[in-house]
User: Fold these one by one.
Assistant:
Number 1:
Amino acid sequence: MSFCTFQQLLRIVAGLLFLMASIVASLPSSGTSRPSTRLDRDFDSKTVAEFVERILEIMPGEDSNQLHVLVEEAIVNGEDGVVETVIDVLLNDHQEDSGNDATEQENLQDAVECGCCFATYPFEEMIQCPETHLFCSPCMNTHSSILLGSHNPDILCMDQSGCTAEISPSELRRCLPTKTIELWERVKQRRDLESAGLDNLLYCPFCDWACIISENDAGQILMCRNRKVCGVISCRWCKKLDHRPNMCEVDSKGKHHVDEAMSGALVRQCPGCKKPFIKETGCNKMKCPSANCGTYSCYICRQIIKGYDHFDQTIGTADRRSETCRLWDAVDERHAEDVRVAAERALKEYHLQNTKVDIKSVEGVEHPASTAVA
C-alpha cells in the first residue's frame, strides 16, 4: 500500500472497523468476547478473500495484497488493536517510500546529460574526455566497438563540437566492459607493432601473436607461442593448419608464390607506416597516401627521403649521375623490370624450398622479358 493522506488513513481505519463488525457478527459464539489467536477461529483463505473484496468496494484502488495482511491482523487483534495495526503498517510503508524518494531525488540531483544520446546518468557512471565532455558507458561502448571493428584503437571524443581529444586509458578501463578493453589492448598492440617498421614480422593466422623470423628461415610451419589462447601450428604459405606430410598446394605448384611476388613487385609500402600503394604516373618522389603519415620515399630504392636532393633530376641520358636514383623514368618500363626481377627471385626461392622440382615445370608462370630502364 503506498503512502496516503490523513483523510485516506481515516477512510481505511473506518473501513476496517466496519469490516471488524462483520467479522464479529459472523463468528460463532465461543463464550468469550474475543478469542486470543486467529488459529482459534475457523477462517480459511476464501473467507479472508471475501472480506478483502468487501473492503475494496468501500476503498477501490487499494493494494489487495496489503489488505490481506491487514484483514488477518484484524482477525487476530480484534477491534481494539485494529487501528494500531493499520497505523503501524502505514507508517512503515511511509518510511520506506520516503527513503526511496530521497534516494531517487539525490540521484536526480547528481545526474548529468550524455553528450551523445542526451539521456541522464549518475556522474560516476560517465566517461569524460580531457576537454570535460561527458558520455554514458553504453554510448562509449558502442562507439569503441565500431572503431575496434575496423582495427582502429584510437578512441576519440564524439562531442558534437568537433572535439578530437583521445579518451584516456584509465577512463576506458573504468567504464567499458572487460571484453571491450581486452580487444582494445590487442588492436592497439598490433598497430604499435606494425608502426614499428619491423622487418620479417609474421603473425599467427589464428590469433594476434606475432614474431620476427630470420631472412634465412625457409621453414614451412609457424608455431604459435600463445599456448594459453591459441598454440596452433600453421603453414606459413597457405595460412592454414599444418598439413604435413602433405605438401602445401602453394609449394606443390609454385604458381601462387611466384604470382604473389610478381604482383607485389608493383606494390610499394610506405617505409613509415607500411601502408601499400601503387604508382600510376608522375615522378619517383612518393608521398604516403595515409593522412596520418605523409612520409616521403623514393619509388626506386624505397628509402625515406626529405627533398629532391636524393634524385638525379636530369632529363634524358645526357650528363646523368648514375649513382643516384632518377626523378623521372617510364613507369611501364620500370614496372616490367620490377616484375621480371621479382619472378626470377621467387622461382629461385621456390627451387631452394623444393630442390626435387624443376623450375621449368612450374605451371602457369610466365617469364617476363627483360626490359632495360635507362
Note: Confidence is low (pLDDT under 50) at residues 30-42, 356-365, 367-374.
Number 2:
Amino acid sequence: MTKHRRYARRNLDLADDKRSAVLDGSHKTKLKAMSHIHSNKHTFGAKRIDSGNISSPSLPSQRMRTHINESLAAGARHQGRKGGESTTYGRRRRRRQLNPVLMYPGTKWCGNGNTAEAFDDLGSEAEADYCCREHDYCPFTIESFTRRFNLFNYRLHTLSHCQCDRRFRNCLKKVSSNSSITHLIGRIYFDFLGSRCFVFTKEKYCVERSWWGKCRTYGTQLTAKIKLQECY
C-alpha cells in the first residue's frame, strides 16, 4: 500500500514538473512575442510618422478662387453682431481700414489690407486690384510679428509663399502695359520693399524621447525658409 502511494506521489510530482515547464515555456513565448510586438510598434510608429509627410503645396489659380468664394459664402451665412457684416470678412475689413492712406491710388486691394465693401468691389484700376486681391488671399502667409510654419516674421509686411508672389508678379506684368499704376505697384513691392518670400522644406524633429533624453522616434515637418526674390 505504501509502495503504491509512493509511486502515485512520484507520478504527481512528475506531472507537476511537466506542467510548470510547459507553463514556463508558454510564458516565455508570450513574453518574447510581446517584446517583439512592442519593438515593432515603435518601428511601425516611426515609419507611420515619417510617411505622413506633406508635400510642397501647389496653388492653382482656379482652386484658389473657388476656395475664396466658398470661404466668403460661409462667412456671409454667419452674420456678425455689429453692422450686419459677416464674422470673417467684417473683422478683416475693420482691421484693414485702419490705414486707408496706405492704399495705392485708384485701388481698394493694393496696399495695407483693403478698403473694399465686398469681394467683387474693385477700384478704378480694376486690373491691378484683381491681381492684388488674388495675392491677398494666398492661403500660405505669415503676418507681421507672428510665428507660423516654425518661422517668426519680424518684418513690417506679411510674408507670402513664393508661388503666390510668383503668380502676383506674372499677373502684374500681364496688365502693366495697360496701366502705369500696375507697373509702379510691382516696382514698389518687389524692388523698393525688397520683399522676401518663403518656401517649404522638410526638417527632422524628435517625436518621442526616452527617460535619459535620447530621441526614440523621429518625424518630419514642414518648415518655412526665407528666399530672396528677383527684382521686378
Note: Residues 21-60, 75-100 have pLDDT under 50 and may be disordered.
